[in-house]
Every structure is written in structure tokens, then in C-alpha cells.
Amino acid sequence: MDPEHTKFTLKSNPSIGFESTHSEDTPQVRPKHDIGVDPRPFPTSTDGTTEPKERKEIATQTVSAPRSKKFATYDDSKLVSFIRKVQPIVEEELSHGMTPMFDCNDNLYDASERYRVCRHQELTLRGLNPDHAVDRPFYVGAAAWLSILTRDAPLLVVAGSPNHAAWCDHVSSTVTVFCPKRDRYGASVQWVELSSSPVKACIESLETNPFNRDMFAGGTVSGDVYIWHYELNLKVERNSFAELHSETTDCGKVVDMAWARYNVMSKSDYALLTAHTDGTVILWRVGKTIVKDKVFKLSAPSANGRALILTQILATSNTEFVVGCDDGSLLLCSTTQLIPLGGTATSAERTVVNSTPAASSTSAGKGNFFSPGTIELKCHSFSVTSLQKIENRRQELLISCDLTGEVLFHDITDSINSTPTLIIKMPLPFKTRIVCTSNTDYIFSPTGSGLLELYRIGSGKVDTVEPSVPLKGSPNLIKMSANGKWLITGNYGGTFIIYSVAMEF
């Protein structure tokens, strides 16, 4: 080993430092460093200053108004006035439902592309009179949709009869109720016959009461007026189809019918208007009792004494109705002011009277024949075959169609303007009946061979829906259900076609 290195390894140097004050003989308390004993320091700011800042609660978004009226900064009367002004507007907007959310790639100007119309079912009626060995097929038909029973499907009433002629004995006319039944999996519905009832003559008009969809009326070619009511009876369901009233009039064939409120103050009484070929309209009061209330004799101001032949009738309110005529005339009739008619009324009594129950009772002894106030609208070129009223975008429209497919749209939101807002000429063949969708996008019309035409109002394009097999006959019927999801057309030799209508978003 190197001698120089042995100096450092073998020799011990004395310790350098301070003497310890710790004495093992006297134990001392050691301070604990894991628990602080100093007071909590004030939070320091980030701006570099050393002095602590006082913390303040400052509201930066909303400031609540003081509860005391002494310090209030708003006016209660102005707030109440504002709420009263805004509340009806908000309620009206909410009544229209949610606005549909369209995809950015959708064409908002061609909403009719989203309609899907499919043939759903075919119903066939045959006369079942035991006195006739061979029953003739039905060619004249009428139908009405009643209240919804299951899966958005309403009850259906169908009437059929052979072609009516002067020698017709009316022995095969019936009214049949069809009930929608779900299949075993609940995926679809099919209409099955529930009950049937004979009528006195060939029936060509059926109309559902829109204020009580379990009630409907029918009219025959002999002037008979029927009113029926359906009541669901699970024990005896086939006997739930009851006749409330039947009466024969002397005004000729019943061509069409319309329901309205008898009085806006009474919700239990209804008014039934029946239009007859000789220019007569009868007002029936339907309540606890069913009575003939008034008889209106119609005449056009420009007819110069020419007799009117009515073809259609539509009630636009409880005091107004519109009739269509065989010569293409459209007449708006008002029952608020009536002129009494009849040989017992003197010239002094031929004054304008109000259409009230009191006024009608005073004139009951002199006869209840009246002439309503009449306004002529723009007329069609040919016989009026369809009348319809729809509400679209806070607008009420009167839609009329004649035999050639000319369609007139009148705006009746406030009052009926004699000039139509829109005129459409649909292509041939002749149109006997049409219905328009509630959004005024489509017009449906049945044609020969069982075809259903779909006319697009915006573009004028025509699509067709074909039956399963070609059918023969000239259809004189098309009715759409109140929810707009079902159509029925006919009559093709006793066969009616039911269509399902869906809107695809």
C-alpha cells in the first residue's frame, strides 16, 4: 500500500461542529410538523401585489328584482296587459302542433312527393232478396266513415242499389255497416260486415254527423230521409245499429245532405240539410226529437224564373250553406234573414224575419216555407259534382268541381268572395267526384276500370293507382275519412275499393 494513502485511512480526524444540546437524561417534547399551527393565510391575487383583497359576491348575469314594492322597477299593470295580449297568440300557435322537421335535402315545394296511396281492400255488395232468383248487381252506391274504432280505422257504412229507373221497384236497396278488425298479429285491419238494414228505395246519399260521428243520415231517390245511430254493445254488437228516424218527403229525390249546428249556443241539437232535385232544401232539427224545421225554396237571381235542379249541398256554418246546380251555378244561401213564402202570407207579411226559434214558431201557422238570402258565386260550365270545405294554414277554402274536372277554390275565411282564388282544369276523362287533401297538395278522383287518379295541384302531374283486377263501371263515389288516412271509391258492379293514405316525412 502506498505510505501516503495510509495516512488518511488509518488515522482518525477529530469531529468538527457544535456540541449537541440534546440530553438523553431529560426527555423533551418534539414539535409535530404534519399539523400546522399557524393561522390560515389570506388568498393572494394573481396580479403580483402582496396585499390581500376582500372577496365580493358580484352577480354578472341576472339581477333579481327586490320583493318590496318600494324598490320595484317594473309596472304590474303593464305586465298584465302584455300577458293578456300575448297569451291568445301563443295558444293559437300551439294549437297548430309541432312544425315538422324537414331534412336539408328535402324539396319543401313538392310535399306531395311524400304521399303514399295503396289499395287496401275490396268490398262487394249483393242483393239478398229471397223473392228474386237472380239478384242484379249494384251500380249505385254511397258510403260514410263513422267514428274510429281501432288502429286509426273508423267504422264504414256502405249503401248499394241497382241502376235506378222509372220502373224500379227498390227491392234490393240496403245499408250495411262494416267494422274494422285487426288480424291475429295486429299489423293490419280488414273491414268485415257487422249488420245490414233494408231501406224503402234506392239510396244514393249518406252523410256522417261531424259533431257526433256515431250518427249518420241517408236519402233515397223517392225522397225518404233516414237517420241512424251506432252504439257499441259488446254483448249484442250486431244489434247496435239503430234507426232513429225515417220520413218520406214530397220534394223529390234526395241528391245530397249536410250537417251543421242548429244553434251555436246548443251543443245537443244538430241541423240536417237535405237537398232535393226540385230546388228545395229542408232543414231538420235533430235533438231529443227529430222534426222538420223549415223548408227553403231556392232561386237564382239571374235565373229569370227558371227552375233550379240541385246536385250538391255543403254547410259552411250554422247560418250559411252552398248549393251546386245542374247548370253549373253555385249559390251561397244565408238563413239569418228569411222571406216567408206561401199563399197565406200577405204582402205586408212578406218581410224579412230573423231565423230564430221564436220567429219560426210564430210563422208555423202560416207554413214554414222560406226563401233565404242568395248570392251567386262564379259558376261552372257544367253540372257541379263535388263540394268540399277544408281549413289550410288558417284559411278556409270552398272547393267545387264540375263534370269536366274544372275545380274552383273560393276563400271563405271572413266572407265568400264571388271570384275564386284559384282555378284548375284537370285532364279528362270526366270527373264525377273528387276530394282534396287538407294541405291542398293532392286531388283524388276515381275513373273507369277501377283506377284512382292522383292530381298534383302544384305541378299538374297525374299518377294512378290500379286495382288488383280490372273493374267495370262508372264510379260515382269517393269519400275520405276524417283523419285523412282512408279512402273509399266505387261503385264497380257492387265492388267498393278501400285505399290507405299515408304521409311520409
Automatic annotation (TrEMBL):
Region annotation (Disordered) maps to: 1-64
Task: Enumerate the UniProt keywords alphabetically.
Answer: Cytoplasm, Repeat, WD repeat
Composition-biased stretches (Basic and acidic residues): 21-37
Gene Ontology biological process terms, A to Z: intraciliary transport
Name the InterPro entries on file: Dynein_IC, WD40/YVTN_repeat-like_dom_sf, WD40_repeat_dom_sf
GO MF assignments: dynein heavy chain binding; dynein light chain binding
GO cellular component terms, A-Z: ciliary plasm; cytoplasmic dynein complex
The question of whether Cytoplasm is a record keyword is answered with yes
Q: Which domain of life is it from?
A: Eukaryota
User: PANTHER family, from UniProt?
Assistant: CYTOPLASMIC DYNEIN 2 INTERMEDIATE CHAIN 2, DYNEIN INTERMEDIATE CHAIN
Q: What is this protein called?
A: WD repeat-containing protein 55 homolog
- Organism of derivation: Anopheles arabiensis
